[in-house]
Write a structure and sequence with these properties.
The complex is a heterodimer of chains A (827) and B (248). Chain A is of the alpha+beta class and 827 residues long. Chain A is built from 22 helices and 22 strands. The radius of gyration of chain B is 18 Å and the shape is globular. The chains are: A alpha+beta (827), B alpha/beta (248). The structure holds adenosine-5'-triphosphate and magnesium ion.
Chain lengths: 827, 248
């Protein structure tokens, strides 16, 4: 310990004597450690931290029921089960000390203009028990408060909502919160940051019995085994391994399913059949979502970005190695003296590593400053990261990074430099030492180039993806279209009432100044898609790789959305229930189904679930290609009048306007609210907002990969600069001789630049091979660009080449200024 | 044993022929200095190392520069070799007025006419003997094939073919200096400037180097050497004495 303090004290003193070296080294490492700490914060939040407020998270698992056959097949990614399955699972008392059921919901909180959307969950009372959560005020649900049928109008609110709506007052418990137009009594408040099992913010929890579907006669979800709507959590009983818990759970679910006698019908006219797989299997997933099969896309992106910061960190370490090697060469004399005074080689190595450790420590502390941007970065990943910037795990990671940097950067130079120190008295020890040093430096430069290339290539691919995704043409007049919808779930409208309400809203919106056209569609863009079996008059329809997709639309839909009409006509007011069924098809669909024929007047039979025979829908129009999101391929689709087929989805009003202004959005909202006094929430947003949401992952990837790429590039350039400067210094005599032998300055400069550029070239070549091979894994994260995109790679190589040439040229120029007379005398 | 197997001088002359045409048209002294001065700044005051040097060296001459340590001998050689450019006065090399030329042109002129031999040999450590010989040719844009044959030729003439793949540190001092001279000669310069070429050698090795110089000079190469040894100076045709920067 004493020796260590002495080493550190000597190291600090020796570093203070060369502040330029020390500062460069510390800043390089600060960049590396800072970037990795920043991304570690994201990884930590996504992958390592259990949701806050969960007691004993290691014993809490997610449960899902997998069925291989029958009508309901479900995998681990989104699967759950039914309410009766929950009752089955609850019988597995050996396996679980408690089991919970929940489903994700959104609610409109408040009334009228003040209404806003909140994220919520419908949960069993056991939900809080499973998670081991504690209320900070009031209580959670009592055991009988979740049993269907309700109503049990009670709600647990988040600490955040308690603060924002009730100012954190204790008397909030017992007061009323309006959710979906129903008054709920607040019974409890969660701990700050409690989000249940979720990785997102949740503001309200209501009893599972409050789900409308639970009470509905039609759905009868409380007894229906055919749904996979719900999700489950289990708290493992003490000393029970997961595998045996799952076995017991499977037994109970299978027994429950077998007792089910309801037969599912595939629609009117279809023969009834048993819908349930007789062999359901209960599987588990970790509580931390990112660790399981349901890993969000942002989490995978975070992993890739962590890979990128590891590259930044490595480049920074290699820089430090390079700096230490160069400094070591200059200190050979001093080390020789130390050794001749009796210092063992081990002692010298320890001293050198201590210096490296001091630099890494200072760099790490400085790097922690970068953590202050942590919340900004967390926002890119839509992470509800509420922990302090300098949490224990972050500090621990920084310490680990410092230790790693010390070892990675310090060992090689310590060994090489100490060896050279031993042999300095030998005649050509000096030249030997510096050749070895330079050889190692060349390898390091090559490695840095390869790492920079990897990160910059990823950056390039994301930038290209962002470009293409931004320019993506979904066939809709995106700059001039607004989508408007209302949350009618709670407003107790029946289908007819809701349809009438939408008609009234449409009427008001169309008459607003600044609105060119408006139409209703039942499957709104960006909200999924639906397909039905189709056939032609002549027989079965040709098979398509994907689709055709359907949309149920109101009159003038093409006009309102800006989808180009190529032939025939749009859907009109004349297309009513009872009139001739019609359809507008996309160009690609027309080409596939009626090649070489005029599509107008053709017959498309669409099996919408009505009993056969399926009537012909007459093709009255052909529309240009359009998409329901920025997906990479346009899927053939068709539009049918919603008046002729009452499919109740999520009606949305599509509004076209010459210019989208805040005033227009407000007046649309006003027009909607004016139709119904109790309308809870009007969601009015430009299509460009939806697009921005879809583009966000590419934006995040492009921004962060580019930042880290630029960081590696700057660091690598610094390292390159240092090495070339070092080589020029080392070769002063050489350069003098060469000048005396007739070398002109241009030649001297190029040959010095080459010392740096050759290893960079090698590194770039190797890096290219690795990057092209590895980029395939990025495929699913990219948009419209192949992972081996030549434009990206050529650009990246050109950028690296340019920066490298500059980083070499600046120090190499010094070689031209060497005075041969002085250089040759310096012996 | 460093003695060339064949007559080095004859070979050198043959190589020289190739580049002699330009020189052949010029008939004045090869080197002509008028009032050349060299001084250094020494803490605000001028410290003169060379003063009023006026000197002509004809083609085929063999000049020995002598004088005590610090007299300015090396400085004068550096001026002659166009390694130094901080002097004042007039210097004509093979008819070109060096003092009027910009730096780049001076370098080109030096490259054309001058070969250096150093007391410390100054071979490039990380290059083999053959590669060391190749260096001056590479700076003169000699095509590769011609370079290879010139190097082979020179190795042969100096009897060091067997050493061509060795590194300088694997040679004795005399052998290194032999390579140094071969390197100075390979591009057929009009004049060889040698700063104490035998200063680091045993007397017998030194004698052999001086024999080589005599032979080269006999074959037409102009030689300017700096030496402390009366014996070596006697090999030359005339001696220039320097004292405190003045020619005695
Ligand atoms: N760059 C310089 N700056 C200042 N003074 C210099 C410089 N180069 C040479 N001198 C001085 O010029 C003088 C002549 O040096 P020079 O090397 O020419 O002597 P020399 O005659 O070759 O001596 P020696 O026989 O020891 O080699 C010396 O006093 C030296 O200190
Ligand atoms: Mg001298």
């Amino acid at each position: 310990m004493d020796a260590l303090t002495l080493d550190v004290r000597h190291a600090i003193r020796s570093l203070l004597r060369s502040p330029g070296f020390a500062l460069t080294a510390v800043f390089c490492l600060a960049a590396g450690i800072g970037a990795s700490t920043l991304m570690f914060g994201v990884l930590d939040a996504v992958f390592l931290q259990p949701p806050p407020g969960v007691h004993d998270p290691a014993r809490v698992i997610r449960l899902a029921i997998v069925r291989q056959t029958g009508m309901l097949t479900s995998g681990p990614e989104g699967a759950g089960g039914s309410y009766p399955n929950y009752l089955d699972l609850r019988q597995a008392t050996h396996a679980f000390s408690s089991v919970a059921i929940y489903s994700d919901e959104t609610y409109s909180a408040g009334r009228g203009a003040a209404a806003h959307r909140v994220a919520g969950k419908a949960v069993s009372a056991s939900y809080f028990t499973v998670l081991g959560a504690r209320p900070i005020a009031g209580r959670f649900f009592a055991d009988n408060e979740d049993t269907p049928p309700g109503p049990h109008r009670v709600v647990v609110v988040s600490h955040r909502l308690w603060q924002s709506e009730f100012g954190g007052r204790p008397d909030a418990v017992g007061r009323t919160l309006i959710l979906d137009n129903q008054p709920y009594t607040i019974v409890g408040v969660t701990e700050p940051n409690f989000r249940g099992e979720s990785s997102d913010y949740i503001d309200v929890w209501v009893p599972i019995s409050e789900l409308r579907e639970m009470q509905s006669q039609f759905d009868g979800l409380a007894s229906n085994r055919l749904t996979t709507l719900f999700r489950f959590l289990g708290h493992l009983a003490p000393n029970i391994p997961v595998s045996s818990a799952l076995r017991e759970a499977t037994t109970f679910v299978a027994r429950g399913d077998a007792s089910d006698t309801t037969a599912a019908s595939l629609g009117p006219g279809a023969p009834p059949q048993r819908a349930l797989d007789p062999h359901p299997v209960v599987i588990s997933a970790p509580l931390i979502e990112a660790l399981g099969p349901g890993r969000p896309a942002q989490a995978s992106l975070a992993l890739w970005l962590f890979g990128a910061v590891i590259c930044v960190m490595l480049v920074a370490c290699l820089n430090l190695t390079n700096l230490l090697l160069a400094r070591g060469t200059r200190r050979r004399q001093e080390l020789a003296v130390r050794i001749s005074l009796g210092a063992s080689r081990g002692r010298v190595i320890r001293q050198l590593i201590a210096e490296c450790g001091v630099i890494a420590g200072a760099g790490g502390l400085l790097g922690l400053v970068v953590r202050l941007w942590g919340t900004d970065v967390a926002r890119y990943f839509e992470i509800a990261d509420s922990r302090p910037a300098f949490s224990g795990s972050v500090l621990l990671f920084t310490l680990a990074a410092i230790a790693t940097a010390t070892i990675v950067a310090g060992i090689a130079p310590a060994i090489i430099v100490s060896r050279a120190g031993v042999s300095v008295s030998l005649r050509d020890g000096a030249t030997h030492g510096s050749t070895a040093t330079f050889r190692v430096q060349s390898w390091l430069l090559g490695g840095q180039a390869a790492l920079s290339l990897a990160v910059l290539a990823a950056a390039g691919l994301f930038v290209r993806s962002l470009q293409l995704a931004t320019r993506a043409d979904i066939g809709v007049d995106t700059g001039h279209v607004v989508l408007a919808s209302a949350d009618l779930k709670s407003a107790h409208y029946d289908s007819a009432g809701a349809a009438a309400l939408y008609d009234r809203m449409l009427e008001r919106i169309v008459s607003l100044p600044g609105v060119t056209a408006a139409a209703i569609e039942d499957i709104p863009m960006f909200s999924g898609s639906e397909a039905f079996p189709v056939s032609l008059a002549t027989g079965p329809a040709p098979k398509l790789p994907l689709g055709p997709l359907v949309d149920f639309v109101g009159p003038h839909y093409l006009l309102a959305s800006g989808i180009r009409l190529i032939k025939g006509r749009d859907i009109t007011d004349g297309d009513r229930a009872g009139s001739q069924p019609v359809v507008v098809v996309s160009e690609a669909l027309a080409r596939r189904y009626w090649p070489g024929q005029a599509p107008l007047g053709q017959c498309l039979k669409i099996a919408l679930g009505a009993p056969p025979p399926t009537p012909c829908s007459e093709v009255v129009g052909v529309a240009a290609e359009s998409r329901t999101n920025i997906s990479k391929v346009a899927i053939p689709r068709y539009f049918i009048p919603r008046a002729q087929h009452s499919q109740w989805w999520l009606p949305t009003i599509v509004i076209r306007t010459p210019e989208i202004t805040p005033a227009l959005l407000t007046s649309i909202r006003g027009a909607m609210r004016g139709t119904a006094a109790d309308l809870p929430y009007a969601d009015v947003r430009p299509v460009s907002h939806e697009l921005a949401g879809q583009i966000r992952p590419y934006r995040t990837g492009a921004l962060l990969f580019t930042s880290f790429g630029v960081a590696t590039l700057i660091l690598a350039a610094l390292g390159l600069y240092g090495v070339v400067a070092y080589v020029v210094l080392q070769r002063t005599r050489d350069i003098g001789i060469r000048m005396a032998l007739g070398a002109d300055s241009g030649r001297v400069v190029t040959s010095m630049m080459w010392q740096g550029l050759a290893p960079i070239g090698g590194g770039v070549a190797v890096g290219l091979l690795i990057a092209i091979a590895a980029s395939g894994f990025l495929r699913s994260r990219l948009y419209g660009v192949t992972p081996s995109d030549p434009v990206t790679f050529v650009t990246v190589v050109a950028v690296i080449g340019g920066v490298a040439a500059l980083a070499c040229f600046i120090p190499a120029r010094r070689a031209a200024r060497i005075d041969p007379v002085i250089a040759l005398r310096a012996e | 044993m460093i003695w060339p197997r064949r007559s080095a001088a004859a070979g050198a002359a043959a190589v020289a022929d190739a580049k002699a045409d330009a020189l052949a048209e010029f008939h004045g002294p090869l080197i002509s200095l008028r009032n050349v001065e060299r001084s250094y700044d020494a803490g605000g005051q001028r410290n003169y190392v060379l003063r009023g040097i006026t000197l002509d060296i004809e083609r085929g001459d063999f000049v020995s520069i002598m004088g005590p340590s610090g007299a300015g001998k090396s400085t004068l050689l550096n001026v002659l070799g166009i390694l130094d450019s901080g002097w004042a006065g007039e210097y004509h090399l093979a008819g070109s007025a060096v003092h009027t030329l910009p730096v780049k042109a001076r370098t080109a002129l030096g490259r054309r006419h001058i070969g250096f031999v150093f007391q410390q040999y100054h071979l490039l450590d990380e290059l083999t003997v053959a590669e060391n010989l190749d260096v001056p040719l590479s700076y003169r844009d000699v095509p590769k094939a011609q370079r290879q044959s010139l190097v082979a030729d020179t190795l042969d003439r100096f009897g060091i073919v067997g050493k061509k793949d060795l590194y300088p540190r694997q040679l004795s001092g005399g052998q290194q200096q032999l390579v140094g001279i071969a390197r100075a000669l390979i591009a057929s310069p009009a004049v060889i400037l040698a700063d104490e070429p035998t200063g680091n050698l045993h007397s017998s090795q030194g004698r052999e180097i001086m024999d080589l110089f005599s032979e080269l000079n006999a074959a037409g190469t102009t030689i300017v050497q700096v030496t402390h040894s009366e014996e070596n100076a006697a090999r030359g045709k005339r001696v220039i004495q320097l004292r405190d920067g003045w020619m005695a």
